UniProtKB/TrEMBL annotation:
<feature type="domain" description="ABC transporter">
    <location>
        <begin position="2"/>
        <end position="226"/>
    </location>
</feature>
<dbReference type="GO" id="GO:0098796">
    <property type="term" value="C:membrane protein complex"/>
</dbReference>
<dbReference type="GO" id="GO:0022857">
    <property type="term" value="F:transmembrane transporter activity"/>
</dbReference>
<keyword id="KW-0813">Transport</keyword>
<dbReference type="Pfam" id="PF00005">
    <property type="entry name" value="ABC_tran"/>
</dbReference>
<keyword id="KW-0472">Membrane</keyword>
<protein>
    <submittedName>
        <fullName>ABC transporter ATP-binding protein</fullName>
    </submittedName>
</protein>
<keyword id="KW-1003">Cell membrane</keyword>
<dbReference type="InterPro" id="IPR017911">
    <property type="entry name" value="MacB-like_ATP-bd"/>
</dbReference>
<comment type="similarity">
    <text>Belongs to the ABC transporter superfamily. Macrolide exporter (TC 3.A.1.122) family.</text>
</comment>
<keyword id="KW-0547">Nucleotide-binding</keyword>
<dbReference type="InterPro" id="IPR015854">
    <property type="entry name" value="ABC_transpr_LolD-like"/>
</dbReference>
<keyword id="KW-0997">Cell inner membrane</keyword>
<dbReference type="InterPro" id="IPR017871">
    <property type="entry name" value="ABC_transporter-like_CS"/>
</dbReference>
<dbReference type="GO" id="GO:0005524">
    <property type="term" value="F:ATP binding"/>
</dbReference>
<dbReference type="InterPro" id="IPR027417">
    <property type="entry name" value="P-loop_NTPase"/>
</dbReference>
<dbReference type="InterPro" id="IPR003593">
    <property type="entry name" value="AAA+_ATPase"/>
</dbReference>
Length: 226
C-alpha cells in the first residue's frame, strides 16, 4: 500500500533545525494493522502526518499506491487523501457547529455522490458504530466515547482503504478506549489498513506489527503471531 524510502523531515525555524524523521524506511501492506510507538517528540505525529499526506517529507521517497507523492502539491495530496484515508485523533476533531450526521456526511462531499445516497450511507455507518440514536445531536452533547464513534464513522463512510489514528484512545477511559480498539479491529478484519500511534502497550497489542521510533529513526519492529 505504501513505502517510504530514506525519508527525512526537517523543521527549520529562524534559528533551530529539528530533524523530526531521520532516514526512515517503512513499508506497509494493504490490510495491515500497524502500531507506532516511542517517547514524546520521537516523530510519531510527524510520521503519521506524512503517511496521511497532510505534510511533505523534506527528503526521500514516499510511494502511496504506486505513486511517489513526496513532492506533490498540497492540492494534489488533498485529492488523494480524501479518497483513500480516514483520520481519527485523540481530541476527536469534530466540527462543533454541525450535528453528528452532518459531521459524518462532510467526508462524502468530496465524492461525487447524490444527496440521497449520502444520507443512506451516513445512516448505515451510524448504525454500524452504534450512534444512530444521536444523529441530530451536536458533538458537545456527546460523551468522549460517543464522539470517537462519530469520528470512526467519518473515517470510513467514504470507503476509505486506510485509517490513520493518532492516539485514538488517549482521551477515553479504559472501557471506552477498548470499545474503540474493538471497532478498529473489526474494520481491520474487513480489510481496512490501520496505522495507529499509541502510548498504550495493551492497545498496540491489537496491531499485528509495532514500529518503534526513537529520535526520528525506526529502532525496532515487532511482529506478533497471528
Ligand atoms: P511525537 O508525535 O512523537 O511526540 P512529533 O512528530 O510531534 O513527535 O515531533 C518530532 C520532533 O519534531 C519534536 O522535536 C518536535 O518538537 C518537532 N516538531 C514537530 N512539529 C514541528 C513543527 N511544526 N515545527 C517545528 N518542530 C516541530
Ligand atoms: P502529540 O504529542 O499529541 O503528538 P505534540 O505536542 O507533539 O502533540 O504536537 C502537537 C502539534 O504541535 C503538532 O501538530 C505538531 O506538528 C506541533 N508541534 C510540535 N512541536 C512543535 C514545535 N517545536 N514547533 C512547532 N510546532 C510543533
Amino acid at each position: 500500500m505504501l513505502k517510504m524510502h530514506n525519508l527525512s523531515k526537517i523543521y527549520r525555524t529562524d534559528e533551530v533545525e529539528t530533524i523530526a524523521l531521520n532516514n526512515v524506511n517503512i513499508e506497509i501492506n494493504s490490510g495491515e494493522f500497524v502500531a507506532i510507538m516511542g517517547p514524546s517528540g520521537c516523530g510519531k505525529s510527524t510520521l503519521l502526518n506524512i503517511v496521511g499526506m497532510l505534510d511533505n517529507p523534506s527528503e526521500g521517497e514516499y510511494v502511496f499506491l504506486g505513486e511517489d507523492v513526496a513532492r506533490y502539491s498540497e492540492a494534489k495530496l488533498a485529492n488523494i487523501r480524501k479518497r483513500h484515508i480516514g483520520f481519527i485523533f485523540q481530541s476527536f476533531n469534530l466540527i462543533d457547529e454541525l450535528t453528528v450526521a452532518e459531521n459524518i456526511e462532510l467526508a462524502l462531499l468530496y465524492h461525487d455522490i447524490a444527496a440521497s445516497e449520502r444520507r443512506d450511507r451516513v445512516a448505515a455507518v451510524m448504525d454500524k458504530v452504534g450512534i444512530a440514536h444521536r444523529a441530530k445531536h451536536m458533538p458537545s452533547q456527546l460523551s468522549g466515547g460517543q464522539q470517537q464513534r462519530v469520528a470512526v464513522a467519518r473515517a470510513v463512510v467514504g470507503n476509505q482503504s486506510m485509517i490513520l489514528a493518532d492516539e485514538p484512545t488517549g482521551n477515553l477511559d479504559s472501557a471506552h478506549g477498548q470499545e474503540v480498539m474493538e471497532m478498529l479491529q473489526g474494520l481491520n478484519e474487513e480489510g481496512t489498513t490501520i496505522v495507529m500511534v499509541t502510548h498504550s502497550p495493551a492497545h498496540a497489542d491489537y496491531a499485528r506489527r509495532t514500529i518503534n521510533l526513537f529520535d526520528g529513526q525506526v529502532v525496532t519492529e515487532n511482529l506478533r503471531a497471528a
